[in-house]
Amino acid sequence: MKITVGMFGFGKAGSCVAQEILKDDICKLKWVIRKSKKNEGDYASRLLGFEGDNGKIYSIDSIDKDAFFKDNYVDIIIDFSINSAVETYRAAAEYGTRIVSAISNYGEAQLNHLKELGSKTAVLYSPNITLGINFLIEVSKVLQRIVPEADIEIIEEHFREKPDASGTALRIAEDLGLDREKHVNSIRVGGIVGKHEVVFGLPNQTIRIIHESLSRAAFGQGAIYAAKWLIAKKKGIYTMEEAVKLSFARNIKVFNIDK
Amino acid sequence: MKITVGMFGFGKAGSCVAQEILKDDICKLKWVIRKSKKNEGDYASRLLGFEGDNGKIYSIDSIDKDAFFKDNYVDIIIDFSINSAVETYRAAAEYGTRIVSAISNYGEAQLNHLKELGSKTAVLYSPNITLGINFLIEVSKVLQRIVPEADIEIIEEHFREKPDASGTALRIAEDLGLDREKHVNSIRVGGIVGKHEVVFGLPNQTIRIIHESLSRAAFGQGAIYAAKWLIAKKKGIYTMEEAVKLSFARNIKVFNIDK
Amino acid sequence: MKITVGMFGFGKAGSCVAQEILKDDICKLKWVIRKSKKNEGDYASRLLGFEGDNGKIYSIDSIDKDAFFKDNYVDIIIDFSINSAVETYRAAAEYGTRIVSAISNYGEAQLNHLKELGSKTAVLYSPNITLGINFLIEVSKVLQRIVPEADIEIIEEHFREKPDASGTALRIAEDLGLDREKHVNSIRVGGIVGKHEVVFGLPNQTIRIIHESLSRAAFGQGAIYAAKWLIAKKKGIYTMEEAVKLSFARNIKVFNIDK
Amino acid sequence: MKITVGMFGFGKAGSCVAQEILKDDICKLKWVIRKSKKNEGDYASRLLGFEGDNGKIYSIDSIDKDAFFKDNYVDIIIDFSINSAVETYRAAAEYGTRIVSAISNYGEAQLNHLKELGSKTAVLYSPNITLGINFLIEVSKVLQRIVPEADIEIIEEHFREKPDASGTALRIAEDLGLDREKHVNSIRVGGIVGKHEVVFGLPNQTIRIIHESLSRAAFGQGAIYAAKWLIAKKKGIYTMEEAVKLSFARNIKVFNIDK
Predict the structure, then answer these.
(1) Which residues of chain D from 6 to 45 reach within 8 Å of chain A, CB to CB?
(2) CA closest to A194 among chain B residues
(3) Are residues C48 and A47, on separate chains, in Cβ contact within 8 Å?
(4) Looking at the domain assignment, is residue B251 inside a domain?
């Protein structure tokens, strides 16, 4: 049995994710919906150098939203497009299609919209879909519990065009109770794929936890991991942290360091 | 009540540790035993800019080992000297003095000697006495369990004169089951106090956990933490890991990343 | 006018370089010679997602070496294959084809062979073809002149399968007069594209110069830069350092730091 | 012959600088002027563990400014105190005492005041007195000329209490023509002595130049270097860059990278 997948988004990240799905043994890429009309009617598989016709490309303006998601049913939609896409695939949720969304800049209304879908199907929402990033977040939470007196700063580096602070960095700030204006430092230079560093400063020692994405394929692998996990879940809203079961933060005993 | 402390070693690390003990509210530095005859009869407190006469300095060749440890009883010996010192303070263990040893290059006979002392008193042995380093070790063990397929390398940087690989780096290698010849990379330049980095490499992402000591005072704070913890323990051999109760590694669930 | 290019090598690095050549306005990829018979007769352009038929793929065993280089004359051969390829394109040099070789592990005989070609055509040889790496090398030489008493270590990180120390790291060691066995530290983990760090240690300060390749496209851009520079040169052996004219090291005045 | 030195400031940095002066063979610390009345009448030498009575400590409110600088003439004043101290030592300049100021946050009036002193004596002003930092600045300027299209960000890390962005980071931003609000990222955690990193980002490669101060002794060594250089200079305003004669930036030829 294969898990059928529909993709939203075919930009820098989206096409890398599509590539990983095409390589995967269990997932099968059925279609790709993108904003522009470029390559409409082509197959993502062919464009990415694979054999066979997989991942037919549709422009979002060319589809009949209700009929499309019924006629082209998939088990999972993976969304690496833009924050307004959530309004498009409401009908898909009605048909039981599960949703993995990696969008990092939802507005409040859009986020509510996504949560509503959780009453109809299983939805996993995470702006930080690489597994390593979730390790970084969980370990940082542990370290903060161990040394609550440590000063903490977040440094994130991305390619020059990336707007705003990274959703992941904001999430780390939120999880650690840090003011995002003050403690998230965004570096935008050249072609850096993605680097997140959490610095813990104590009077006589510094601890750094650093995650570097080497290629956007890491997003694809995270999304596939999430998709396979979500396929067995009931309706509801889930997070990547739940998917990776990084539960260790809950169980550790606390000690004091460097006071 | 004060915890009385005797120090072995008054070199680069030893004198920094003495300084932290002198600042501590609960510990009281009674004496310092060193190899050379330099400053014999002086007080460590005066040499380090403190008021009062604390930490009288003795040369190891000037003391009568049996009588000394009885007449100058201390609750704890903290050893930052050399690997042969363990043979000197056997008598102290007989009188119930507890031992904190931070020596990193014991030979097998010396290590056995130290373990024997554990049948007479409480002994804590750790070549990596800073608390942050123990966090680094424990977190690395967790990450290895989560992503067993990751490649792991250890990089340690220290001041130019430091001989051999650091005891801490070797310990990390041992704990992670890595060949120390192949996977411990030692950088010796200038005046670097101490930096340990564990690099986890996956096909599309890299995770780094880095600990930097900013000053040898971190060793003193670790040693004081260990001393206070050890004072309530029964005879036996203990490790810093036990002292910091970083037990979280035992409780986490395992998942796979980036396959 | 276009510069016609023939490529040797179509592996990880080679295909990335081919891709950059295919994107370039001035270079035209005429053929690719590879070791295996895979994709023989196909076009690199099609395999890499470009329109048009460019870069026809030949297996090295299928070509008649003398006739091939005459019948398929190119202005430049760019070699990202293996160290024995140099023996193959001797005939090309006779016809005036220029050579850019980025091979890092030539044996002595092969290196002599390459130098002989320099008596027939213009040859640029550099195992470190990215422009940034050459900056790192030149700046390191300057800093060593400024602070000759600094301790220097080289750390290089690459993907797990890369054998031996990197040619670039060895070159840096040679240029700085460092024993390569002692001072080159090779980290092999996961999918790291390529990172070189030169650490200068002084008693109270450390200076690090770090170059990270984010994608192998950097090699292609360096190779294209070298090709365009070489096209106007007379016969002889050249280096990337000459191509980038990083001549500043020769002109600076020396001062002493941190003694 | 000795160079006699008077110090302004005896805080974290000031006392480290005093210590280096006390160790130096050519400099002789005559007095220290500080803001508080703490240790007034004591000798810096004794407080810092040296033999002999050197560096008598005065509170700034206890001295008669005109008479003091005549009666206690020194060849050089080294100022690691606060931005208002410049108003105090005007009289010293009249007597020919040279000035080395490492103050990083002068207001405009104070800076003008300092410049006026340059019409009476030789004044060297540098908020970034370590020699390595000046190397970092000069090399960054070179690299910017080589790759003008590179994106540049500055990251500076210091101990938690350090207010505002570091003077050095602002200077780098100014020298590279970068908006200081946008491109200087300040990390304030724990006890970090001082780290400055300049990141150059290109589409496929990143270059980082990093300077780390391991101890404030580096400031002292820089100040002593500056003092010895300044002693032979005529009246005027000088910079550390001039003192270290890092003139190489002027001589290099420009090439383009990674376009």
Answers:
(1) none
(2) B205
(3) no
(4) no
Q: What count of CB pairs under 8 Å joins A to D? A: 77
Q: Are residues D137 and D210 in the same domain?
A: yes
Query: What is the H or E stretch that residue C90 is in?
Result: helix C90-94
Strand-pair category, B205-213 with B56-59? unpaired
Assess whether A103 and A153 both reside in one domain: no
Distance CA C69, CA C87 (A): 13
The predicted pLDDT at position B214 comes to: 93
Domain containing C63 — which CATH number? 3.40.50.720
- Which residues in chain C are contacts of B160 at CB distance < 8 A? 151, 201
Same domain, B16 and B137: no
Q: Is residue D253 predicted with pLDDT exceeding 70?
A: no
Which B residues in the span 143-182 are in contact with A, Cβ-Cβ below 8 Å? 143, 146-147
Cα–Cα–Cα angle for A161, A166, A171, rounded to 5 degrees: 175
Domain that holds residue A28: 3-129+217-244
* Number of domains forming the structure of chain A: 2
Distance from CA of D145 to the nearest CA of B (A): 30
Determine the Cα–Cα distance for residues B91 and D139; give it in Å rounded to an integer.
60
| Confidence (pLDDT) at A245 | 60
State which of C176, C193, C214 marks the end of a domain.
C214
Q: Which of chain D's residues have a Cβ under 8 Å away from the Cβ of B214? A: 190-193
Residues D52 and D139 in one domain: no
What is the model's pLDDT at position D245? 60
The burial class, CB within 10 Å (0-12 / 13-18 / 19+), for D108 is exposed
Is the Cβ pair D131, C244 closer than 8 Å? Answer: no
Reported pTM: 0.82
The tokens describing B178, both together, are 């890595």
Residues of A in contact with D203 (CB under 8 A): 190-191
Residues of D noted as catalytic: 158, 162
